[in-house]
Amino acid sequence: MRIWLLNIMLVTGFVSFGAELRPDDLPEQLLQPDSDLATDSEAADDLMPATLNTLGEDDSGNWVLKRVWWEKAEDAFGHIMAYNSQVQDQQQLFFSARHDLEKQLEVDRQKLGLPLEDLVKVVDHLLVMAGQAGNNLPENVSNQFVNTVVDNKSKLVALQAELNLMQKIDADQDSLMLQVVDQVQKCADYESKAWVDFKQIGRVLDDHKAQDLYQHVDSYQKNIQVVLKYLKGELYSVFTKYSQHATQKLISIDKMMQDLKGAGIDLGYEFKAMAEGAVQAPQPEVQKVAPKPVKSAGVWGMLANILSSLINLLLFLPKKLLGLVGIKF
């Protein structure tokens, strides 16, 4: 019991004493801050940069949003690659269709017998002849043929128009194929630029910059979509129409040539005659001085010349020299 009362007294006294404690009564080590801890904290503050640099990019921002823009750009760039694959396939479709068309047109051209440019020349030549009928025509051009050309002038004019149109279609097709190549190259450039911007999103920390870069990538994606739609739609439709017109025009040209041949105008024959100079467009008369003919000596002429030279030599030699050789007159 005494021990229990003593413990109560000690506890009570301790509590009463603790209530009267002042800062001066506390141990010195409890009053002073930990100097080593403070020093380490200041050093850590000095070493910690205000922002984190990522591969030389001095910026900062919301990393979570930056991650969102990076993922969206990754998805957009994946679509760009898929669209460009379709663009390449469409280009191959154009080339294959043009190759097949050329094979067919080449067969049709061979039926004509002459290249288009040669047909244009001979038709132009005949129309010039029809326009100058009765005026200084060459002697080797019969009036009957000229009259035939004049009678069929309207057919020649129609054929001339078809030939010119066919040449224009060929030129337009070549231009269209160059346009296809140009559009495909644009899509390749868009993909290259999108790749640069996509990689840049991974370097920056600023979510605003990441958003701007994503919008660039998305714009490239939309541009490629527009080109792909143009290649599949409008441009391919124009190419198909050109192909149909080219086939139809060659059939029409062949029929016109057959009609002219039945009327007495064989364009193949006339082109050969024109190339050989047998049939020429009327030219203004130019007076020329004919050169004097030079007679060829021939073998007997050569012998006569040699004999004449020997006689002249003998006549002019001194008589003494003639005596030495035993020649007497």
Can you summarize this structure?
The chain is an all-alpha fold and 329 residues long. It is built from 11 helices and no strands.
Percent range for helical residues?
over 70%
Shape: rod-shaped
Mean pLDDT: 75
The name of the CATH architecture of one domain is Up-down Bundle
Rg value: 53 Å
Helix segment tally:
11
Low-confidence stretches: 1-56, 279-299
Structural class assignment: mainly alpha
CATH topology of one domain: Ferritin
SSE order and pairing:
Layout: H1 2-19, H2 28-31, H3 35-47, H4 63-112, H5 116-131, H6 143-151, H7 153-203, H8 207-262, H9 267-276, H10 298-316, H11 319-324
Helix pairs in contact: 4-7, 4-8, 5-6, 5-7, 5-9, 7-8
Overview of this protein structure:
With 329 residues, the chain is mostly helical. Helix content is 77%, strand content 0%. The chain has eleven helices and no strands. Helix 5 (116-131) packs across helix 9.
List keywords for this structure.
Ferritin; mainly alpha; 11 helices; 329 residues; rod-shaped
